[in-house]
From TrEMBL:
Pathway: Pyrimidine metabolism; UMP biosynthesis via de novo pathway; (S)-dihydroorotate from bicarbonate: step 2/3. It comes from Anoxybacteroides tepidamans. Residues 3-140 form the Aspartate/ornithine carbamoyltransferase carbamoyl-P binding domain. This is Aspartate carbamoyltransferase. Carbamoyl phosphate binds at residues 49-50, 99, 127, 130, 252-253.
């Protein structure tokens, strides 16, 4: 079954194939299932980019999107996630996209449900489609990952984006630097080396900024927003330390003037809105992968 739960479960060949497919979709390639197919997006946490871009991707592939509002669903009456998915399966839904606050919510489901699950973010765990769109944006810029230095900056410990990206970028031959306030370092993530922020900014080809994940922890730093920005953010002065061809990424939503100066969000180096655009193509590729091979290994779908 073609679940997409973490990128660590994909070979590099599979990752690169998804990026190639996403590029094809960005150039206008069309792909359809032979019969109308139904998908559902189950979001148990807020989202703008991931939810909306999955929905655009689904509609571009001609899929029928079943509306699902967690607050108005039978989850409110105590239904389990397993029973929700089994219900959708039994009425003909062929793939579910899930965002959930619990780390690795998919661990048991992966063996018990009969349709592919696409992970749209699990707690502090993984965000594979965000990572793929980041990879697509980096490859468009540099043509390769090997030899690049990527600095991931901010609340590393609570970031599923940091976890997904550090693992796959290392496998692809990039060097990962982390820069974080002391209390948000992640001792469990061995894919990067911690450096001070000025070093990270000077050495990186890609500066990837992270939002403070306030919704996952109540930890206060005892700093004002201005103090955080000055000590741990990409200020205008730090942007001027970056190498001439280096770029800025951020998974967004952005807290302007906290992790990044507001005027840098759309500066020449920023690829933040390009990341969002690429998100649609990456999600088209991921949906195609999920739908095209059913439980019997039969291949569905066709280009036209
Ligand atoms: N980057 C990201 O996952 O954004 P949303 O939370 O808005 O989906």
């Amino acid at each position: 079954m073609n679940h997409l739960l973490t990128l660590a479960e994909l070979s590099l060949e599979e990752v690169l194939t998804l990026l190639d497919e996403a590029e094809q979709f960005s150039r206008g390639t069309h792909w359809r299932m032979p019969e109308p197919a139904f998908v559902a997006n189950l979001f148990f946490e807020p989202s703008t980019r991931t939810k909306c871009s999955f929905e655009v991707a689904e509609r571009r592939l001609g899929l029928h999107v079943i509306p699902f509002d967690a607050d108005m669903s039978s989850v409110q009456k105590g239904e389990t996630l397993y029973d929700t998915i089994r219900t959708l399966e039994s009425i003909g839904v062929q793939t579910v996209v899930i965002r959930h606050p619990e780390d690795r919510y998919f661990e048991e489901l992966r063996h018990s449900v009969h349709i592919p699950i696409i992970n749209a973010g699990d707690g502090c765990g993984h965000h594979p489609t965000q990572s793929l769109l980041d990879l697509m944006t980096i490859r468009q810029e540099f043509g390769t990952f090997r030899g690049l230095t990527v600095a991931i900056v901010g609340d590393i410990r609570h970031s599923r984006v940091a976890r997904s990206n550090a693992e796959v970028l290392t496998r692809l031959g990039a060097t990962v630097l982390f820069s974080s306030p002391e209390q948000w370092k992640d001792d469990t993530n061995s894919y990067g080396t911690y450096v001070d922020l000025d070093t990270a900014v000077r050495e990186a080809d890609v500066v990837m900024l992270l939002r403070i994940q306030h919704e996952r922890h109540g930890e206060k730093m005892g700093l004002t927003k201005e103090q955080y920005h000055e000590q741990y953010g990409l200020t205008i002065a730090r942007e001027q330390m970056m190498k001439p061809k280096s770029i800025i990424l951020h998974p967004a939503p952005v807290n302007r003037d906290v992790e990044i100066a507001s005027s840098l969000v759309e500066c020449e180096r920023s690829r933040i809105f390009k990341q969002m655009e690429n998100g649609v193509y990456v999600r088209m590729a991921v949906l195609k992968r999920a739908l095209q091979s059913d439980e019997r290994g039969m291949h569905n779908g066709y280009y036209f």
